[in-house]
Amino acid sequence: MKIFGINEFAARFPNAICGIFTLLFIYRTGKKIIDQSFGLLWIMAYAGSILPFFYFKSGIIDPWFNLFIFSGLVYFIFFLDTEKSQLRRIRLLASSVLIGLAVLTKGPVAVLIFGFTVGIYWILNKFRLKINVYEILGYLFMLILVGGMWFLIQAIIGNYEIVADFFTYQLRLLKSQDAGHGGFILYHAVILFFGVFPASIFALKGFRRGYYDDPFQKRFKLWLIILFLVVFIIFSIVRTKIVHYSSLCYFPITYFGAYAVSRIINNRTQHYRWVNIIYSIIGILYGIAVGLLPFFMMNKNRILEAGWIKDEFAAGNLQAEVNWTGFEALPGLILIAGIIIALILMKTRKKLAYNVIFVSSLLWIILNMLIFIPRVEKISQNALIEFCKDRAGEECYVETLGMKSYAQLFYTMKQIPTNENSYNQEWLLTGDIDKPVYFILRNRSVAKYRELYPHLKMFGEENGYVFLKRDIK
Hints:
By secondary structure, this protein is mainly alpha-helical. The chain has helices at 8-33, 36-47, 50-55, 62-80, 85-106, 109-124, 133-147, 149-156, 160-175, 187-195, 199-206, 215-237, 250-265, 273-298, 300-306, 312-317, 330-345, 350-380, 382-391, 407-410, 425-430, 446-452; strands spanning 397-400, 437-442, 457-462, 465-470. Helix content is 65%, strand content 5%. Helix 14 (273-298) runs antiparallel to helix 17.
């Protein structure tokens, strides 16, 4: 942001770089584990699946967190299978530094995931790991040095409360549904199965035992199975359910998807018709949904008048003025065409068929981002963002009521408040304020808050969002 300014491009730029590093790393790893063709296939499976691609266009920190953990684990696996002492030390050092960077990125949950994965492998391997006491101590020293750097600096300069608050927050995520993000126990199973399409479908075959694998390939596969189960189980137990919590699973899922496809292409396993059927059904449903959405939106007024949309906020969102032409159905048609072509080629030209699957999926995702995402953004949150942008530079407070958002912090260019009372929502609602206060809420919550706080004035309403204002007395 020092280079590009405080804007969306700067916020998303690090993850674009992370995407490049991630694809290069999985190619290099795949090439070392199996061969160059597999490395390229793993790249296609990763980049051609929905959520992995989307995450490199996001502004969240998880892509870097996941890359550090996965690369740290891979270097540790390579370390265990290395005989040369100098190369062993380099790989062990790389692993400890990378896991330390993961801790710096998002916190000690990185050590938890890495520790559980190594511990379970150690148990399954009959309590044997090719590592001595001095190497363990050296690993822990570098991990604490790198991963604990931020905590140490905060403690030295006297910010003990920040460190304590950080760990308190981590515990709260485990015990409660933070920020209203709850969900059922199999939440991440659904997200991973449908969100990492199409790799997740082929991964169903990739977990199978590989008779043609050498001993190291079998061990690497076991490591990834353990990693997948550790992440999946931990975040299924954690009560806070957010999509990106299980995003570290993208690595093993895409690996197993590419592995299954590689075995089919090289005639080392048979076609399983049920896998192709599942892939075709889900893909066609995705294509139909995307294909019909523009025509649904072009007739939204009739749908709203008919009362089919029961949710008041959703109905308000749909009132946003967005231009739909019908051309937006193109991505869905491309995906369906890719599925049909791939199925036709499957018997005679398997390699080309799977290339078509991943390329058509990648093209579908890219076109969705170019065509749909801007329009969906206008429907879902443009009114909120534009309101916040209009408040930038104004001497006021902007807060949400009955909903969670970070838009008011980013788009208003909020500075550090001089009045500590402004952190207290009740003070903003009823206290002796020193600046006007704007409140953002959904239309379905207006009656409740107007009844509780009748002194709040209606400032405006747009596309499902209502803006209330409290002036200085």
